[in-house]
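Journal club side-thread
Mid-discussion, someone asked how the predicted structure for our own chain would compare to the paper's figures. Pasting it here so we can look after the session.
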Amino acid sequence: MAPSADAAAPAPTPPLAPLIATQLKFLLTNSSLPIKVVQIWSGCSSGRYADRFTLGIPFCLDYVYWDFLYNAMHPKVAPDVIFGQGDEGFQPLVDYDESGNGGKSCLAHWDYRDPGGLLCLVEELRLLYIEYQKKLVEKVDDARLKFEISTVLAKEGIEVSMVSSTGRSDEVKFAVPLLDLDLKMMVPGCPWKLPQKIHLQAIFPVSSSYLSVPSAPGLKLTSTPDLKSLFSVDGVKLPAWVDGMCMAEYIPTLEEDLKLQVVDASASIGCRRRFIEALAPAFGRPLEADPIFCRKATVLSISGIFTFLVHFVIPLQFPKQQPILTLQSCQHCNSQGIPITSPPRNSYPWSPRWEVTEMVERIYDYLADECQNFKKLCSDGFPQAK
């Protein structure tokens, strides 16, 4: 007889022991890094409480995954930590003891009553892991990499890691923080909770043979996700990597270009805000609008007895790029009961040199005709793809 669905379902994970849960909550609330909880489980199959979890710790533009093992029977005791596969050489506590710095570790002064104990431990281990990876890279037998390391590792916040893959040569990845700017201060009322960063990722193949003209590294810009509301690194054209160049030469030019673009992106918020404000005389006061980054707005429009919404999505490159319009009927739904919407539209007359009042007037004139086509499609019962 086949087991029932209830019998096959895995048992739910019990809650973390209260003292342990407090430590984890404090970590997730107060860390300046986007640490994530991957898994929670119990060390005892019949335990009342879970007492261990896997954390994803940001490192070198990726994550390392470490298991933190508490004991629900003795929650006042500090956790053990199991590091990731391939990091058998990372033994921070042993190294601390050998260097005589064991007394500096937060584990030497562990106090279960301090909710920040786990946060201190994670921060301490991450810093030690950064140094561990730097030492691994410094041992690489590659003259070019040794030169790169000697010239850029002094830059504050830089991280490096060895990247080993089956079937191909090892690589060294650099994560270089760019722009010494407080990006949050550039946006009044900004809701960001975590610091926003832009990094240059540079990947160098490890080669023990001498090359008179080594190939350019793999280069890529990355940013924290929230920053895309202000500035997208995807559209940035990287400066060319000239033969014989090193990162110490490349980075200043890149930072200069980036700084100008970020300042322009900050200034463009004002342009988008003036456009949204200009909607009111023609369309009436917007029902909704993004007050911080000014990327979206919605107005209510009426043509005879036909009532519809117009959603504006304003690109970061405004006014070089025009807003994308989507019409949504207030009176017609598709077979799933979802209001019918038009495909996104940006084929209306536009010039970035117009004043915002003229931009809005041209959009208003375009919609006066376009809404009739949309009304007909809605009335004919043809649902429009969202």
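Post-session note: The radius of gyration is 28 Å.
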